[in-house]
Amino acid sequence: MTLGEQIKKYREKYGLSQRGFSNKVNISQAYISMLEAEKEVKLDPEKLEVLEKLLAEDLLNTIVKNEEEKENKNMEKKDNDLVQENKALKENIKELIKIIEKIYSDMDAFALGVKIGTLKSKIKD
């Protein structure tokens, strides 16, 4: 991508006119226009440095933003997975509670049966 294309893409991304962009970077609008039109322009090293820094910073910010968005999506997926696991664990716990309650109920019935059997044997004696 040429420098002119990069400048135009940057301007469009941030909704800047050539004049607005030229004010931002303190470079004449005519110079910006010639760069975008890819006309032969005497490249001023100081102006190029300003443009390169601005465009490089924007590229870096875009990369960082994309990485953050990707990380956020990964975190959302992990959160959703944890919520689903939590629901499944709650259901398993409910089932275990039912089983334990049944065991205690059976144990109570057994203990009661033993007591009744003991009482009956004492009465027979």
From TrEMBL:
It comes from Fusobacterium gonidiaformans 3-1-5R. Pfam families: HTH_3. This is DNA-binding helix-turn-helix protein. It comes from the Bacteria. One of its GO terms (molecular function) is DNA binding. Residues 56-106 form a coiled coil. Keywords: Coiled coil, DNA-binding. InterPro entries: Cro/C1-type_HTH, Lambda_DNA-bd_dom_sf. Residues 7-60 form the HTH cro/C1-type domain. Transmembrane segments: none annotated.
